[in-house]
Amino acid sequence: MAMKKKPVTGMKDIMPREMEIRDYVIGLIKETYRTFGFSSMETPCVEHIENLSSNQGGENEKLIFRILKRGEKLNLAEAASAADLVDGGLRYDLTLPLSRYYANHANDLPSPFKALQMGNVWRADRPQRGRYRQFMQCDIDILGEASCLAEIELIQATTTLLGRLDFHNFTIRINDRRILKAMAAYSGFAPEDYETVFIILDKMDKIGLEGVEGELLEAGYDKTGVERYLNLFRTVTSDTDGIRMLKEQLEGFLEPAIADELVMIIASVEQVKDADFRLCFDPTLVRGMSYYTGPIFEIAMDEYGGSVGGGGRYDEMIGKFTGQNISACGFSIGFERIIMLLLERDFKVPSAGTKTAFLIEKNMPADRLPAILEEAQKEREAGRQVNIVMMKKNKKFQKEQMQAEGYEEFREFFADRLG
């Protein structure tokens, strides 16, 4: 049987041009986030299946790549179900592994702990534009900070990074899960129905207000309650005035401090931002993960037509490991989607200096080669990039190929003379 040369469905080979951009962006991410006090850390790509299947990951738990037990532990004959054959899985995000990491190492970490984690994650999803089954995530999280300073810094750091990558006119949408619940309670929905209602609400940008109304009624919810619920969305504005309006209208269902905190986050970020973006209140923003407990946010970018990142507060996840809740908030950028957008706009990595190619004639005498190598070494010691290659017959085409890789200067070395 012939070997297959294409990668597994939903995964991809990365060509040198894209790899150059990826390396540059990774370096810029680390450099930018380091200025905000974030420290790099890492977790294994494999997690305990019990952790991955703990009802923390929403729909992603349906997309786990499971790993079979090994050796004598893998007993096919005595397995009563598929669960008896599996003890691990590939991580589907970086938040749950970070929570386990913090629970395991809290005594050796500063408080608050500002974590930067980059790494591949895996989801058995349907591949499409900007979505793969293996992809890199880039997360920053602040653990142990209960105040909204965490949200402010996360938004500021992330938008600063996007600005340094020359993204403009993107939007940070922000909401709070507690506001979502207060709106549902005010409208008469039972707490056990909240998640179903939120799943339908999350379709607002695709099916509109009428579509949401139809699905809620089809799900059997009271028409009066549905109308009361949707009237909130018809009247609320996407600014701090909208938050204040809900604060008044939801009196008795929403703690005033929750609305005040969200207003403070928006006002603070607006005052210190140095990137070109819009920050708006969006009461329809849900975020799919059930572990979010407070403010949530998402990056919308017109040139992608969807989300290129998001995050929020998850104060109860670490407590699942330790029995004691720890304040936690994080923001993740869609690394693969950012790279895709940079490739589509023909992004050029800023050069640290001229890239030079030394083209050597094939019949170069052996005693002449060391002098060429020494000259290249001097150039490299001076901080320049030098690529030594053998000269091809079609020298014009060879140079064109290397120019496409960013080489601007060419020096030719022939057998009868040095360049």
Model description:
The chain has 419 residues and is an alpha/beta fold. The protein is 38% helix and 20% strand. Strands 1-5-6-11-10-9-7-8 form an 8-stranded mixed sheet, with helices on both faces. Strands 2-4-3 form a 3-stranded antiparallel sheet. A 3-stranded parallel sheet has the order 13-12-14, with helices on one face. Strand 12, helix 13 and strand 13 form a beta-alpha-beta unit. The protein starts with 15 loop residues before the first helix and ends in a 6-residue tail after the last strand.
List the helices and strands and how they pair.
Elements: H1 16-34, E1 39-40, E2 46-48, H2 49-52, E3 66-68, E4 86-90, H3 95-105, E5 113-122, E6 134-143, H4 149-164, E7 170-176, H5 177-186, H6 194-201, H7 204-218, H8 223-235, H9 240-249, H10 256-272, E8 277-281, E9 295-301, E10 306-313, H11 319-322, E11 328-333, H12 335-344, E12 355-360, H13 369-381, E13 385-390, H14 395-404, E14 409-413
Helix pairs in contact: 1-4, 4-10, 7-8, 9-10
Mean pLDDT: 91
Shape: globular
Radius of gyration: 27 Å
Helix content: 25-40%
Distance between the termini: 51 Å
Secondary structure: number of strands: 14
Proportion of β residues?
15-25%
Helices and strands, in order, run as: HEEHEEHEEHEHHHHHHEEEHEHEHEHE
**Low-pLDDT windows of residues:** none
Structural class: alpha/beta
List the strand order in the largest sheet: 1-5-6-11-10-9-7-8
**Number of separate helices:** 14
What's the main sheet like?
8 strands, mixed
